[in-house]
Amino acid sequence: MPLQRSLYPWYVVGVLMLAFVLSFADRYILGLLTIALQRDLGLTPTQLSLLIGPGFVIPFVLAGLPIARLADRYSRRRIIILSLLFWSLATLGCAFARDFSQLLLMRALVGAGEAALAPAAYSLIVDYFAPERRASALSTFSVGTYAGSGLAFTLGGAIIAYTAKAPATADWQSWQLVFMSLGLCGLLLSPLLLSLREPPRAAQHQALPLAALRTQLWQRRRVLLHHHLGFALLSLAGSAAVAWVPAYFIHSFGWPPGRFGLAYGGIIALCGSAGLLCAGALADRAWRSGQRDAALRLAGNAALGSATLGLLYLLMPDARLSLLMMLPSAFLSAMPFGLAVASLQELMPATMRAQASALYALITNLVGLGLGPLAVTWLSHQLFGDEQALGKALLTVIGSTQLLAAICLHSGRKAYREALEHRAAPT
């Protein structure tokens, strides 16, 4: 397949990244709205953890693999457009929820809709770029994870700060306006996706049968275990942080949600995006020099840094010092995630890349969003139970999972090199 060499492939990455930004904004916005939802809808911490975690991730998981099989066979562009419209309407619907059950239903629809985006987008991007450029392209796309989280907090913070001073908005609560704004942004983006072209792929309309898919996965079981478990643990740490760091900071330092959202969102968007782009550039450079396991090595080193230097913000006695220490934390914790996708794509044949990405997303989201917020809630109430309980729970969950992830990723490097050599060997 002739690879595109114009700027158009980067245009595709940019447009898909905007969709990814909105998906993560919709996914993580609840972290800033916990206090407002407790006040207006009477939600408990456990209910909030269910909305952030299992209420989103179970539909996400159930929809992911079936949609990914469609993406390996049919138009990925159309699947992405329909996905964006579906989850944006569901996000808009969150604004009209009147109790826990209604909000849970809308969150489930958001999860099901977002399941299609990443697998289809990963597969689309890989078909536009040569192997030595894919880490940069996929890391640029993955900037959406941190830019989206940053957008959630900055936009949400700005709306909360504005509504606190604007009596004219009294008919709508701040959290309702946040959901409306994000849902409308998604609807406005959908026409731009129509400008994307579907690139040719190696085996057009020939997705592997399920039996062949199982065989391919079983042959790579050793490296996939290290890969998926390592990045799932990092996802758990990240989900725990995004879900409960806002509440920790607001309670510990007394900042209003609007002020904190603006500061935290800027840090996540800028430093997280910088970490992703830096990791992608380093990985591509290492690939060109023949270091085939560089993605796992860099990800493991970043996880180790996050488990040490990256947690100092939870130990600071002052709000400004805590925000200052969030800068290296956001940079280091972001670095692995573009590498996760790039390293996985190199292992898989073209006819199963979307399905492999969906399986990866299934596992990382099930572990990350499914367990991360709930683990913090359980530890803070059952194990610690004092005024500093939330900070201690965050420190325990994030630090332990990042350290285990570093061990897992480094121990999988040999298996990863062997899997690449086996795939490259003539048959």
UniProtKB/TrEMBL annotation:
InterPro entries: MFS, MFS_dom, MFS_spinster-like, MFS_trans_sf. GO terms for molecular function: transmembrane transporter activity. The keyword Manganese does not apply. Keywords: Membrane, Transmembrane, Transmembrane helix, Transport. Pfam families: MFS_1. The chain crosses the membrane at residues 7-25, 45-67, 79-98, 104-125, 137-162, 174-196, 229-250, 262-283, 295-315, 321-344, 356-378, 390-409. Residues 12-417 form the Major facilitator superfamily (MFS) profile domain. It is a multi-pass membrane protein. One of its GO terms (cellular component) is membrane. It comes from the Bacteria. It is found in: Membrane. PANTHER family: PROTEIN SPINSTER, SPINSTER. This is Predicted arabinose efflux permease, MFS family. It comes from Solimonas aquatica.
